[in-house]
Amino acid sequence: MEMKQDPRITAYVAGELSEEEKVRFETEMKENEALRDEVERVRKFVTETLSKHDLDGKVPVLGPDAMMEEVLRRERIARLKRRILWRAIAAVAVVALMVTVIRLGNPQEQKEVAFTPTQLIGQDAKSAAVNQTDGAVSNVEAEAVDRNMIVAEKVQEKKKSFEVLGSSIARKSKMAMEPPRLYKPAPPRKPVPEPPVQYLPPPDVRAGERYQQFRENQFLAVTENPLSTFSLDVDTASWANIRRYITQNHRLPPADAVRLEEMLNYFRYSWKGPSDNAPFALHPGLTECPWNPEHRLLRLAVKAREPEGPRPPVNLVLLVDVSGSMYSENKLPLLKRAMRMLAENFREQDSISLVTYANGTRVVLDGVPGTEQGTIFRELDELQAAGGTYGEGGIQLAYQTALKHFKRDGVNRVILGTDGDFNVGISDLGELSRFIAKQAKTGVFLSIMGFGMGNYHDSTLKRLSSDGNGNYGYIDTINEARKLLVEQLDSTLVTVAKDVKVQVEFNPAQVAGYRLLGYENRVLAKEDFNDDKKDAGEVGAGHCVTVLYEIVPAGQEVPATKVDALKYQKNTPAGEADELATIKIRYKEPKEDTSKLLQFPALQNKLFQPFAKADEELRFAATVASFGLVLRNSQFKGSATIESTLRLAEQTIPDNAASERKEFLSIVRQATALK
Amino acid sequence: MNQKEQRFRDAVQAYEAKLVGYATFLLHGDVSRAQDVVQDCFFKYWRTDCKVEDTHLAPWLFKVCRNRVYELVRKNSRVSFLGEEAELDVPDEQTSCPFIQDDKERLNHCLERLAPRRQELVRQKFFLDLSYKEIAELCGITVSNVGVQLHNAIQSLRKCFEANEEER
Question: pTM (2 decimals)?
Answer without folding.
Answer: 0.51
